[in-house]
Amino acid sequence: xxxxxxxxxxxxxxxxxxxxxxxxxxxxxxxxxxxxxxxxxxxxxxxxxxxxxxxxxxxxxxxxxxxxxxxxxxxxxxxxxxxxxxxxxxxxxxxxxxxxxxxxxxxxxxxxxxxxxxxxxxxxxxxxxxxxxxxxxxxxxxxxxxxxxxxxxxxxxxxxxxxxxxxxxxxxxxxxxxxxxxxxxxxxxxxxxxxxxxxxxxxxxxxxxxxxxxxxxxxxxxxxxxxxxxxxxxxxxxxxxxxxxxxxxxxxxxxxxxxxxxxxxxxxxxxxxxxxxxxxxxxxxxxxxxxxxxxxxxxxxxxxx
Length: 305
Description:
By secondary structure, this protein is an alpha/beta fold. It is 48% helix and 14% strand. A hairpin with a 2-residue loop joins strand 3 and strand 4 (67-70). Helix 3 (39-53) runs parallel beside helix 13 (280-303). The two termini are 23 Å apart.
């Protein structure tokens, strides 16, 4: 199946889509840039297993040798995990050059949405989305994830926006671009490592059936944009906001002192927060991804009914 000359859809994913079965897209930046080897590969395969256990087919998205992959093999996931940060972190601006050069790329939220949409996959599970960075009023550092949500009709299930960001401005930006933010079992935007941020989402939704119905209506209305589902980290893995916010403040100060900016900012901050929390943030990160995978798979199953 090749809907685009640069796109390869794995046989399993192509068959599931042809038969109208649920498919959930997964990003690959979490493999290459999100955690160390071999934990990154173990986590990626565990997420795929959770998708299957909840009734859907996983499609890990990546760029391998200039090919856009909708569905990676275990060998390709292993390759990305071992290569780590030497793999390009690919946003929309990088796709054409990586394809032209035949290079590898790990997909962000933005590029996972693009490739999922090309392949016909409507639901995507990730950790947290990018957003408006703190200090963006002077740096203009705003994640391309927000623009993509405004233009690409894919439902993104996440644990909110990473708490290294300005969450209030992130919600304002999404509102301006007409992106609905639905809280799954909550009226509050979760802040990735913690369940609470103090900022309200647009709508609270309590079942996968309701999520699927809302997104189906969006598609049938012909809207171009996506839909953001904010699914809080499970209570038992939620971190103390005081601990995580102290770590984030220190990490931000170090990033500024070291002149870190642009696409290097988020990996630097997450690594620093992990170091400052003694690894607790990485454990929380893994558990929230597992939780998002479950909700995404159940919602994808409802969407195809």
